[in-house]
Specification:
By secondary structure, the protein is mainly alpha-helical. It has a domain at about 30-70. It has 1 helix and no strands. The protein has one helix spanning about 15-70. The longest helix has about 55 residues, at about 15-70. The termini are far apart.
Length: about 70
């Protein structure tokens, strides 16, 4: 059984328990990191879409300004 306590007396643990403890912690951290990477990728996509929209809107504004001055 893996102990979850941070204040664990590590000297009383079998090496396999220590390995299991840190393996589970590492796997959990990998899942968190993967989820965060996915969220960052989604945010990057949103930012790219917003930048594209800004470029299109700037072009449209210039087009409309040209029509006003005609």
């Amino acid at each position: 059984m893996v102990r979850e306590s941070v204040d664990e007396d590590w000297s009383n643990l079998d090496i396999n328990e220590v390995i299991e403890f840190f393996s589970k912690k590492f796997k959990m951290q990998e899942r968190v990191t993967a989820r965060q990477d996915g969220q960052l990728a989604q945010n990057d996509d949103v930012i790219a879409q917003q930048k594209d929209m800004i470029v299109r809107l700037k072009g449209r504004i210039k087009q409309l300004e040209g029509q006003i001055h005609e």
